[in-house]
Description:
Layout: H1 43-50, E1 54-65, E2 68-71, H2 74-81, E3 87-96, E4 98-103, E5 106-112, E6 115-119, E7 125-128, H3 139-150, E8 157-161, E9 164-177, H4 184-187, E10 193-196, H5 205-218, H6 224-246, H7 254-259, H8 261-272, H9 280-287, H10 291-302, H11 306-324, H12 329-335, H13 341-352, H14 356-366
Parallel strand pairs: 1-8
Antiparallel strand pairs: 1-9, 2-7, 3-6, 3-9, 4-5, 4-7, 6-10
Helix pairs in contact: 2-3, 5-6, 8-9, 9-10, 11-13, 11-14, 12-13
Amino acid sequence: xxxxxxxxxxxxxxxxxxxxxxxxxxxxxxxxxxxxxxxxxxxxxxxxxxxxxxxxxxxxxxxxxxxxxxxxxxxxxxxxxxxxxxxxxxxxxxxxxxxxxxxxxxxxxxxxxxxxxxxxxxxxxxxxxxxxxxxxxxxxxxxxxxxxxxxxxxxxxxxxxxxxxxxxxxxxxxxxxxxxxxxxxxxxxxxxxxxxxxxxxxxxxxxxxxxxxxxxxxxxxxxxxxxxxxxxxxxxxxxxxxxxxxxxxxxxxxxxxxxxxxxxxxxxxxxxxxxxxxxxxxxxxxxxxxxxxxxxxxxxxxxxxxxxxxxxxxxxxxxxxxxxxxxxxxxxxxxxxxxxxxxxxxxxxxxxxxxxxxxxxxxxxxx
Length: 367
């Protein structure tokens, strides 16, 4: 799964979307990363900052017929490509050709030039030139390949397959992020997401980001690895935006809620002011809906009742603070709207399953 002509390789990088929070004992970070930066809020950016979206690995495959690769569950290789990440997301941008993606228990998905495949839940999968064929590289060989790529031993471009035509070229991107206690973006995505890139003749933002990344990879310069990984994060964000814009009217999920005028307004309010003592009546008034209508529509689209969602999002913020700062538990609770340490600790354990102190200890052990 090697043999290539480009002498640029990738390895690991520290998180770029988020910086570690301040370390003073009772102080909140100077610029809390969970607060929306613009009036009216931007919950998608808010979530992606707070769950620490981080570029892990990024390379190009040039495959000739017949070709095929089997990828093990993300949990098997996450410690290799990004040891501190809770979860790894895989995505593939198809630059040329076509093939089939397969997840156990899911019908095979055909892909072609212009498609982006996202595997948000860490499933094992395979990518093949023909459905049902035996992969050229099994899961064990892929593990060794990822280990060597992460160590910087392999070139940016990997040549695979039996040498036949036509070729298939696709970018492989891997991102680290938090899934616990709450990642509303990934939790509502299907096991395999196929996004069709906008047909704009290569002038759309996604095509430009891909072009910049490939150009940077083919002209090795100091700092190139860091730039490529940051661009890979931006590619994923743009894919999510294009998916959001392409959702059908009947689609449900957090991104669908974001697109709905009334529910999107409520999500923005909760994200902009997570510590505010929101009530259903207050949210409904701002949304222009009755309390019953808001509760029903919010639950239908987002998958949680409004007050439950507010609590879950508060706990995600708290989990970040506990892991990334030395704030005392009581101070973390006050930061997200709890007046007493006892009330916060009870709510955190109910939502997350462990106490704030245990969560902090486990996060420290992971780091």
